[in-house]
Amino acid sequence: MIKDVFFDLDHTLWDFEKNSALAFQDIFKKNRVPVDLEHFLTHYVPINFKYWKLFREEKISKEDLRFNRLNEAMLASGYTIEPDLIHVLSQAYIEHLPLNNHLFDGVEQMLQELIKKELRLHIITNGFKEVQAIKLKRSNLSHYFTTLTTSEDVGVKKPNPAIFEHALNKANAEKQQSIMIGDNLEADILGAESFGLKSILFDPENKTPHTGNKILHFNELKQFF
């Protein structure tokens, strides 16, 4: 029987792309940056994904991630912006990102149902420590979760098995009675499985081929518990 459920946060519970777009809309307006938001986002989303992969693989620093993803997306969108302004926008983005807190459809109802079944819920995230707790609090999710483990707490990122081990120890959870739910096949699913955890892929756009457990909407999760 499953007793502990570990969730990823961004792109799983917390609708990162929607909240990110709103943050950019706000900071571009406040800093008078004449960028077509929709055009910019078509470049930023895949570039951000690329840099997060490099960050997970310990190939770049947090500072490199924050600066380069924005600078490269601006250049790809046809805009040349001074490095000083890129730094300003990068910091403003981090500050504005947790101010919008749209969740994926069905998240709160699903969490309530899991709590009613007396399951303990936890977060394991590669997101920046200084904003993840704020996201949980401002989206009114904090009270559902017993523990929050960030990669910065551990010093390694998913899919490194050490972060899963740390999270289970922090939660006082048993591997055989735990499961990981996340959107990233490499970091969340394969990472968890290589550590020996059961897993469920959350893939709302049904774009990731996967032969294991998979859901497109959180109302499908009840079949596993």
Number of domains: 2
Large-scale geometry = globular
Number of strands: 6
Strand content: 5-15%
* Overall mean confidence score, pLDDT: 96
Distance between the termini: 8 Å
- Classify the helix fraction into a percent range: 40-55%
The Cα radius of gyration reads 18 Å
Structural class: alpha/beta
Name given to the CATH homologous superfamily of the largest domain: HAD superfamily/HAD-like
Strand order of the largest sheet: 3-2-1-4-5-6
According to CATH, the fold-level topology of the largest domain is Rossmann fold
CATH class of the largest domain, named Alpha Beta
Enumerate the spans where pLDDT stays under 50 for 5 or more consecutive residues: none
Number of helices: 9
In this structure, how is the largest beta sheet organized? 6 strands, parallel
H and E string: EHHHHHEHEHHEHEE
Q: Quickly give the CATH architecture of the largest domain.
A: 3-Layer(aba) Sandwich
Topology:
Blueprint: E1 4-7, H1 16-30, H2 37-56, H3 62-76, H4 83-96, H5 107-116, E2 120-125, H6 129-138, E3 145-150, H7 151-154, H8 161-171, E4 178-182, H9 185-195, E5 198-202, E6 214-215
Parallel strand pairs: 1-2, 1-4, 2-3, 4-5, 5-6
What key phrases describe this protein's structure?
single chain, 225 residues, alpha/beta, DNA polymerase, domain 1, 2 domains, 6 strands, 49% helix, HAD_2, PGP-like_dom2, YjjG family noncanonical pyrimidine nucleotidase, hydrolase
